[in-house]
Design brief:
By secondary structure, the chain is an all-alpha fold. 55% of the residues lie in helices and 2% in strands. It is built from 14 helices and two strands, in the order H-H-H-H-H-H-H-H-H-E-E-H-H-H-H-H. A two-stranded antiparallel sheet has the order 1-2. Strand 1 and strand 2 form a beta hairpin. The N and C termini lie far apart (47 Å).
Length: 352
């Protein structure tokens, strides 16, 4: 193919050897999750933004899976921002509100309800009949999670099922723009009305996780189930033998072998949770989930850092753009999606 540049791919650091999933016992999963949580809590996170929101929800998911109390970090973080006043300025400012909704369900404290309503009012003023734009002129997979998961949690906490319906509508609209009918995979985003067919790993994680959140809230949504089943089937078909997907999940030659752990963590969490919903064969979903976690596990350091998570990534117009995103620093979404993965694995292991 003319113009391909595999130079980054040729020099990609290979993945660490995977561990046997049988070694990932309840104790190993819980201890690893707690290490990831401690490292995330020590990162100095302070913004009311998307990476922080993924961490907050991941901390709550892990605490629920381990039977631990609500982490003080989550309460302190949310309380501090509520006291200062939440001023959302982007759809990425919505996902911390999922923690607000969770705390309202836990405590009944109206401060958390008011925080949700403040964010919902901001979102309602920007919602029309089409898909929410991530940036002007661009529909991104990220939004289906950042806005959609927030809507699901608010819908459940505030007893407003129409919010879950809106989350499902947005998920479906995003799937129509970004989905590839042949593979079931999702592209990262569109630019000025054109979908850029780069099947970014974290985009697939965002949509898969948002899909299971919606179906857990309303299992009757057959159109979401059908599209999610096609996506997860496509992801299972492209999963490497070592378990960890590339930064572009379709094996594109410009990114082949450049692994991405945050995407793998998010997809693993979705696979485990989709298995509980019987989205497709539960056995196949769990098998792929354990393969993903077995590959991810060696990339978690003793101090709880999830390594090989790529930095924040704007929409790239060509596949090569995804081959040069740095992955040598700790990232909040790497920690947060790692928490989602270990929490979902722990629930799966505990139920068997």
């Amino acid at each position: 193919m003319t113009g391909l540049d595999p130079s980054s791919s040729l020099y990609a650091q290979p993945p660490l050897p995977p561990v046997d999933p049988a070694l990932l016992t309840v104790d190993v999963l819980a201890n690893t999750g707690r290490r990831i949580a401690a490292r995330a809590s020590d990162m100095g996170l302070s913004r009311w933004f998307w990476g922080e929101g993924v961490v907050l929800l991941g901390l709550l998911r892990l605490a629920e899976a381990t039977g631990d109390p609500v982490p003080p970090f989550v309460i302190d973080f949310v309380d501090r921002h509520l006291a200062a006043g939440i001023e959302p300025d982007h759809v990425n400012s919505l996902i911390p509100g999922a923690a607000c909704a969770w705390l309202y369900r836990e405590t009944g404290d109206r401060r958390y309800r008011d925080g949700c309503v403040r964010l919902l009012d901001w979102l309602a003023a920007r919602t029309d009949s089409g898909p929410l734009e991530h940036w002007p002129g661009g529909v991104w997979a990220d939004t289906a999670f950042m806005a959609g998961v927030f809507l699901v949690h608010c819908g459940r906490a505030l007893d407003r099922p129409e919010l879950i319906t809106e989350a499902a509508r947005q998920w479906t609209l995003h799937a129509e723009v970004l989905g590839d009918p042949a593979s079931g995979l999702f592209a990262h985003g569109s630019h000025r009305g054109e979908t850029i067919r780069c099947f970014w790993g974290r985009a697939n994680a965002w949509l898969a996780l948002a899909g299971v959140e919606i179906l857990e809230a309303d299992p009757s949504l057959g159109h979401v189930r059908e599209r999610l089943a096609a996506q997860l089937t496509g992801l299972m078909a492209t999963q490497p033998s070592h378990g960890v997907w590339d930064v572009l999940v379709d094996g594109h030659p410009e990114t082949r072998g450049i692994i991405e752990t945050s995407a793998t963590a998010g997809i693993a969490a979705a696979l485990f949770r989709a298995a509980a919903l019987n989205v497709v064969s539960a056995e196949a979903l769990r098998s792929a989930g354990w393969r993903a976690l077995g590959g991810l596990h060696p990339h978690v350091t003793e101090n709880g850092t999830v390594t090989r998570s790529s930095a924040g990534t704007v929409l790239q117009l060509v596949p090569f753009g995804y081959s040069v995103i740095r992955d040598d620093r700790i990232q909040p979404w790497g920690q947060g999606l790692g928490l989602h993965a270990y929490a979902a694995a722990l629930v799966t292991r505990s139920c068997r």
